[in-house]
Design goal:
Number of strands: 14
Strand content: 25-35%
CATH superfamily: Metallo-dependent phosphatases
CATH class: Alpha Beta
Radius of gyration: 18 Å
Structural class: alpha/beta
Helix content: 10-25%
Largest sheet: 7 strands, mixed
Number of helices: 6
């Protein structure tokens, strides 16, 4: 439980489980909520449903006041980009996410496919594009609106996993440990209302051929639990998942693909799972942090809300 002592305010975390997982219209908390999209596993030259998801994202963002977009990696499949002039910038990104409502800041993460190319080119594209904001392979930021503050931590999970599992000159053990220690140092001093971490690989997963990411379970998850973060959002599996660890207060999500998807799967930790191209919306107020799974038709197929009281 994270309890923050301020000027006569004590914030106590309470979990509120969803009343229904039925497909429905998107109903965000209201005009005071702070809404952003999480998109991942999407860079496929517009094919495999990428264009359809991009079009729907534009409509949803226009209707619901999306403030910014976070990507969970695999921005370019199957081998990243080679430079800031690579044609894939046009075919996988600029020519697809064209609705004016998507001309907001984009905060990308790296996926394993991005690491197949020149990852520095994706960082450098921040100097080319007005909306692409990637200062480093992993980074943090605070977003505020209407007295609501969110701490976002964007991780480079692939380099972390490779560093812990098979360190070499490119992915070293020292660099993997440094990223975990960096996350620990950020969480140790954060004072925001909500904390959301996004990385390409999920900590926990029910996907039969992928499963839990053992390096993240062993090295990163103890840090997450140490500070009782609110949401950890992974990607990589191409299906929607919400999982709960009985020994943790954290909600673990897996965002679906913004293009091709896989068959759904579940296990004892599964709270919800579905197979559909789409994206997620996170909506925050002072007392609620909600996750919405949005399918390719623009319907909310799942909503989960974490609540806290302001005393």
């Amino acid at each position: 439980m994270r309890i923050l002592f301020g000027l006569f305010i004590v914030r106590i975390l309470v979990i509120c489980y969803p009343a229904s997982a039925q497909t429905s219209e998107i109903k965000l908390p209201g005009s005071t909520s702070f809404n952003f999209i999480i998109l991942s596993d999407h860079g496929r030259n517009g094919y495999h449903n990428q264009k359809e998801v991009a079009d729907m994202m534009g409509e949803v963002a226009e209707d619901h006041g999306i403030r910014f977009i976070v990507t969970g990696g695999d921005n370019f499949q199957t081998a990243g980009v080679q430079s800031v002039m690579d044609p894939l910038w046009w075919f996988c990104h600029e020519s697809l996410y064209t609705n004016p409502s998507l001309n907001v800041d984009w905060y990308p993460a790296f996926g394993n496919h991005d690491h197949g190319g020149n990852i520095q080119a994706q960082i450098d594209y921040s100097d080319v594009s007005r909306r692409w904001k990637m200062p480093a392979p992993y980074y943090t930021m605070v977003k505020t609106r209407n007295d609501v503050s969110i701490r976002l931590i964007i991780l480079d999970t692939y380099s972390m996993i490779e560093g812990f599992s098979d360190p070499d000159e490119k992915f070293t053990l020292a660099a993997a440990r440094k990223q975990v220690h960096w996350a620990d140092s950020i969480l140790a001093v954060e004072k925001e209302d909500w904390v959301v971490l996004v990385g390409h690989h999920p900590v926990f997963s029910a996907h039969p051929s992928r499963g839990n990411t053992k390096e993240l379970v062993q090295y990163l998850n103890p840090v997450l639990n140490k500070y009782d973060v609110d949401f950890f959002v992974g990607c990589h599996d191409h299906i929607f998942q919400h999982l709960k660890d009985p020994g943790s207060k954290i909600d673990y999500f897996v965002n679906t693909a913004g293009s091709s998807v896989r068959d759904t799967a579940s296990n004892a930790m599964t709270q919800f799972t579905a197979s559909s191209p789409g994206f997620s919306i996170v909506a925050a107020t002072e007392t609620e942090l909600s996750m919405y799974f949005i399918n390719i038709e623009g319907k909310a197929i799942y909503r989960y809300t974490r609540k806290k009281s302001l005393l």
